[in-house]
Amino acid sequence: MSSLLRLATAGSVDDGKSTLVGRLLYDTKSVLADQLDAVTRASVDKGLSTPDLSLLVDGLRSEREQGITIDVAYRYFATPKRSFVLADTPGHVQYTRNTVTGASTAQLAVLLVDARKGVIEQTRRHAAVLALLGVPQLVLAVNKIDLVDYDEATFAVIAKEFATHAESLGYRTGSVTTIPVSALQGDNVATKSGRTPWYTGPTLLEHLENVPVAPDPHEAAFRFPVQYVIRPRTPEYPDYRGYAGQIAAGTVRPGDEIAVLPQGLRTRVERIDTADGPLDEAGAGTSVTLLLADDLDISRGDLIATADRQPRVTDELAATLCWLSAKPLKPGARVLVKHGARTVQAIVEELTARFDEQTLSSVDSPDSLALNDIGRVRIRLAEPLGVDDYTDSPRTGAFLVIDPKDGDTLAAGLVGDRFP
Amino acid sequence: MTTLEPTAGPAIVQQDNLAALESEAIHIFREVAGEFDRPVILFSGGKDSTLLLHLAIKAFWPAPVPFPLLHVDTGHNFDEVIEFRDRVVEKHNLRLVVAKVQDWIDDGRLEERADGMRNPLQTTPLLDTIADNKFDAVFGGGRRDEERARAKERIFSLRNSFGQWEPRRQRPELWNLYNGRHRPGEQVRVFPLSNWTEADVWNYIARENVELPSIYYAHQRAVYQRDGMWLTEGPWGGPRAGEEVQDLTVRYRTVGDGSCTGAIESTATTVGDVIAEVSASRLTERGATRADDRMSEAAMEDRKREGYF
Question: Which of A38, A159, B77, B158 has the fewest Cβ atoms nearer than 10 Å?
């Protein structure tokens, strides 16, 4: 059974991102006949001899793109080895919002640069956002390599500069891959190019198929936000009381000692249930139902965690926000914080710093955060939450900031002090 | 200068593709059950809504599914599908709300179209029924791989009090933290199958042994051709003069209003056959043969029909 890789793209439209995504869809035979026909016709109309693959992506978008300035589209392709969900973050690269949205679920990001331009401001900004969100694997696709005559030296300079930048963001060598491609000509996308004999690495598609996806670290502490209490009250199951949710981190086995937060209750896991029968063990990402040894008062929003490594319970958060709303954030703002399955009222007490993605430096005590700003804040919560630092446990270190008036999502929040 | 530390990354253990999609869909069902007052599952008896129901049953097992089903009935049904719908409802002890387009036509709230198609007429009964029942979350079987507009739609898709999608008001969807906040009168359409492809749907149906209406598999049927599609005889006005009825071995890729849901010629009698056929159709899609045209029109029809939801 094939595995699933979730990836995001980043980079300017001018860098050929649409063509690259189109090329990936085309070369993995993920394009329907009617779509290809339309692209071929449009290309002929433009006087081109071969189909312009960027139209495959741009054409798909056009209807909805009208009136939407910033948005993400999801695309699907598969090879015999893997299935892919690609969060396609369109142009307007000055906005970090796209990248934040796409990267929040990505296990890998493909960052594009134009071989003629090399690493530019936007490349550095996007790489910083990807590092902030903890995307474990980066691919730098040095595109339009045909337009620099497949020059090895040009590629080497860009690869080295990016490696240095990525390293300063905390990326280790093994988690960054740089590939010379021509999305237009198809070089090193799905087919190894004869015109870059100096490049001995994998094609982009080979890399996507084979890259080891950072598994949940074996030692990660067990975290389980309680989503829903299952109480059938049916003749067959009169006393059944199960706590349903998706494991956010770690693994769980029957017999494990657990704590329920924020109350601080302790008990043992008696059984891990699914509709297909009980499990001996379940790991992160799996939706299960836990039956516990004691009859405790547990409800939606509580967090079940391994008893010996618990999250901290706090009513004050030091956190980083990626501000996604056109309404600016000012100190004293009343908001809602959604963390796991719990939503609590909160006040943003203080804006500690605003981050500059270019210089990787910060400005202290800004007056406000505007759309796409990344900032450090201190948030006071009306009720305590059990939280981890995002760096230790992304799923229990992440939260949404919601506008209580209209329900809009205002910001992506990351718990912790280790960010700018 | 502050240095950023990348983390271990999203804590996702690599499950196989279908297991990961299943876990995600179950998470979405439970999230809606936890956050909304009156959810409902749109159920036509087709493969996507049957899959939705299958996943809902798994999400709440051993408790019953805590939502009713809603079928917008155009009146142009395949008997096999209605029989299947009623059998499934009875088997799982579910509550079924049926909004019959005919009722809206009978009392003048809707007018029959000149072409007899009732697909476009479904929207009003749907929205009226949502309002009458005060449903606040409406599950649909839509997938992002189906059509262009869908590629941009969120898993939780906010609709205004007219039931309309406002692309400008789409919320960013971050991690697996779904924002279901809405104002009174607004509703949220929820798509647990967003990240599934047609191939995933069929592979999962095979793996879970999900029963579907019999018309999804090859059978003998009296059909006539209109606009390149094989339509079956029925109350939707066919065949017309000059449309010749033939006995063919066909199956349906999608079920819905009989006036515009075409059959394809096929000998696929098992799920395995269907999967093979779907894979093969991908290959031939590269060359535009005649059979191919018919195939992609059926796919197009699939999208158009489901686009209403």
Answer: A38
For residues A406-417, average pLDDT: 94
Question: For a pLDDT cut of 90, what percent of chain A falls above it?
Answer: 69
Contact B6 A170 (CB under 8 A): yes
End-to-end CA distance of chain A: 41
- Is it the case that residue A354 has pLDDT exceeding 80? yes
Q: Which two tokens stand for residue B136?
A: 């606040």
What is the pTM for the complete model shown?
A: 0.91
Point out the least confidently predicted range of A147-161, A398-412, B184-198.
B184-198
* A361 in B contact zone (CB under 8 Å): yes
| Residue A69: pLDDT band with limits 50, 70, 90 | very low
A324: which chain B residues are within 8 Å (Cβ-Cβ)? 172
Above 90 in pLDDT, residue B49? yes
Which tokens hold the place of B294? 């018919």
Contact with chain A for residue B189, Cβ under 8 A = no
What gap in Å lies between CA A84 and CA A103, rounded to an integer?
Answer: 14
CB A353 within 8 A of CB A362: yes
Q: Which amino acid is at A70?
A: I
Residues 21-50 (B) with a CB less than 8 A from some CB of A: 21-24, 26-27, 30-31, 33-34
Residues of chain B numbered 279-308 and touching chain A (CB < 8 Å): 282-288, 292-293, 295-296, 299-300
Query: How many angstroms away from the CA of B217 is the closest CA of chain A?
Result: 23
Question: Locate tokens 């179950």: which residue?
Answer: B26
Give A202→chain B minimum CA distance, Å.
Answer: 22
Angle B17-35/B198-208 helices, nearest 10 degrees?
A: 90
Mean of the per-residue pLDDT values for chain A? 89
Cβ pair A8, A99 in contact under 8 A: yes
Q: How many CB atoms lie within 10 A of CB B80?
A: 16
Place of tokens 């793996």: B207
Task: Report the C-alpha gap between B247 and B254 in whole angstroms.
Answer: 20
Q: Which range (A85-99, A350-364, B82-96, B288-302) has the least confidence?
A: B288-302
Start-to-end CA distance of chain B, whole Å, equals 50
**Left, alpha or beta for A150 (phi > 0: left; psi -120 to 50: alpha)?**
left
Whether the CB-CB separation of B72 and B42 falls below 8 Å is answered with yes
User: Residue B27: which of B53, B58, B54 has the closest Cα?
Assistant: B58
Residues composing chain A:
420
Mean per-residue pLDDT, A47-58? 71
Assess contact for A73 and B152: CB atoms under 8 A: yes
- Interchain CB distance below 8 Å, B151 and A73: yes
Mutate to test the interface with B, among A286, A320, A363 (most CBs of B within 10 A): A286
Are the C-beta atoms of residues A326 and A408 closer than 8 Å to each other?
no
Asked if the Cβ–Cβ distance from A394 to B175 is below 8 Å, we say: yes
If DSSP codes are grouped into helix, strand and coil, which group holds residue B222? strand
Beta carbons within 10 angstroms of residue A331's beta carbon: 17
Contact A371, A324 (CB under 8 A): yes
Give the best residue of A2, A6, A32, A374 to mutate against chain B (max B CB count within 10 A): A32
A210 touches chain B (CB under 8 A): no
What is the arithmetic mean of pLDDT over A199-214?
Answer: 92
